[in-house]
């Protein structure tokens, strides 16, 4: 038995949800470029869960279901107030709150297809409310209740700030949600599938996935990108800063990918949005610094930017706190996790690979009194 480090190149399951072939990403056969330009995030949720685009009536129905399930149990809101709020990262708060949410769902362990679909709706609807409520409570503000008349993207920004967002912000945020919704067998999706393949419940699967997304090599990278841009501070500092990192063999967050070679097809959309939004907010230096970093890392390391690189300056331009960038990734990616969880249940087999043993050979047990 020989191990493959990081399971690189291993095909671990079949799936009809999304595919990456020749650096092209599709959801159920629809090119991500088309969806980013034309689709609402609600349409994409429907597409991932049903493997076809909705009719107008079906879209209205899923929108209504999401809107009606967005409120949180009072116990979950109250629970935030017991956290050591200044030291809690919002991803840790989200992970705990999703687990807690399961305790208040009487259907949490009901494993029929219908009950699991109802839980998918509840989780998709409530995760934005968790992220925005936590963000407000830690600032000493009251949470803003979800509104039923707003789109998914608009409602998130509304619950975050208490103000109805403008059209440009909604369009940008919707596009970011569409681009992050699913990504084949990425680390957090694989985590979710491994968890529920034991026939554990949906809440456990999503809690596990949030834990995997939190790491800086996965979803946590977008927050680290903004940290790097802030540290660099101005365009003149880009070259020495990046060269110093590369010379020290440190990774540049937001670059590289396990699967893409020529480039991440999502990055160009975020790059365009970053250019537009940073100009509109009067802070074009974030975009200028980002393109300069891209120039250096691409030419010196041959590594193109991934989805996290330009999403950092996009979210910053929307006025979003930097430590909420990864929870926002979860607000979108939960749609993909849920699609994969439902797919796993529908054709389940326990996921249990092997390990190549590298420890000592046969040893003789020595009673404790005789050990030196
Ligand atoms: N900056 C600098 N060098 C990088 C790099 C980066 N962002 N990403 C990969 N490399 C280098 C590694 O140092 C390694 O070089 P070596 O062979 O000389 O040791 C080589 O490229 C392979 O990297 P490795 O970490 O083994 O690739 P991977 O397929 O396991 O990892 C990522 C993929 C995404 C985890 C990796 O590219 C990375 O850590 N990127 C930064 C974090 C990030 O943006 N994550 C979000 C992904 S969407």
Short description:
With 372 residues, the protein is mainly alpha-helical.
Strand order of the largest sheet: 1-2-3
The count of helical stretches stands at 16
Q: For the terminal residues, how far apart are their CA atoms?
A: 35 Å
CATH fourth-tier homologous superfamily of the largest domain: Citrate Synthase, domain 1
Q: Can you tell me the residue ranges where pLDDT is under 50 for at least 5 consecutive residues?
A: none
**Radius of gyration, in angstroms, nearest whole number:** 22 Å
| Major sheet description | 3 strands, antiparallel
- Please identify the structural class as seen in this structure: mainly alpha
The helix content is: 55-70%
- What number of domains? 2
CATH architecture of the largest domain: Orthogonal Bundle
- Beta-strand content estimate: under 5%
The set of bound ligands, ions and cofactors reads:
coenzyme A
- CATH fold node name of the largest domain: Citrate Synthase, domain 1
């Amino acid at each position: 038995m020989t191990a493959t480090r990081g399971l690189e190149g291993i095909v671990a399951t079949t799936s009809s949800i999304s595919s990456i072939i020749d650096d092209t990403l599709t959801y159920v056969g629809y090119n991500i470029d088309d969806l980013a330009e034309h689709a609402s995030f609600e349409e994409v949720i429907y597409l991932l869960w049903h493997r076809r685009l909705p009719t107008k009536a079906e879209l209205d129905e899923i929108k209504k279901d999401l809107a009606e399930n967005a409120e949180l149990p009072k116990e979950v809101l109250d629970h935030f107030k017991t956290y050591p709020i200044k030291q809690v990262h919002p991803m840790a708060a989200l992970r705990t709150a999703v687990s807690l949410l399961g305790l208040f769902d009487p259907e949490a362990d009901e494993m029929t297809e219908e009950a699991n679909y109802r839980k998918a709706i509840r989780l998709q609807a409530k995760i934005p409310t968790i992220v925005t409520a936590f963000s407000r409570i830690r600032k000493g503000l009251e949470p803003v209740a979800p509104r039923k008349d707003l789109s998914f993207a608009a409602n998130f920004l509304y619950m975050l700030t208490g103000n109805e967002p403008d059209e440009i912000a909604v369009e940008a945020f919707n596009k970011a949600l569409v681009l992050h919704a699913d990504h084949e067998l990425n680390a957090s999706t694989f985590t979710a599938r491994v968890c529920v393949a034991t026939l554990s419940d949906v809440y456990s699967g999503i809690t596990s996935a949030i834990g995997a997304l939190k790491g800086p090599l996965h979803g946590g990278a977008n927050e680290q990108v903004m940290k790097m841009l802030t540290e660099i501070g101005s365009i003149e500092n880009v070259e020495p800063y990046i060269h110093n990192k590369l010379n020290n063999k440190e990774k540049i967050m937001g670059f590289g990918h396990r699967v893409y070679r020529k480039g991440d097809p999502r990055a160009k959309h975020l790059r365009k949005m970053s250019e537009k939004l940073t100009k509109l907010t009067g802070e074009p230096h974030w975009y200028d610094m980002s393109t300069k970093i891209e120039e250096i890392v691409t030419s010196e390391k041959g590594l193109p930017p991934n989805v996290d690189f330009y999403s950092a300056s996009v979210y910053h331009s929307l006025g979003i706190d930097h430590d909420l960038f990864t929870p926002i990734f979860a607000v979108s990616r939960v749609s993909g996790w849920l699609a994969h969880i439902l797919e796993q249940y529908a054709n389940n087999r326990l996921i249990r690979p092997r390990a190549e043993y590298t420890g000592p050979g046969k040893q003789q047990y020595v009673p404790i009194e005789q050990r030196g």
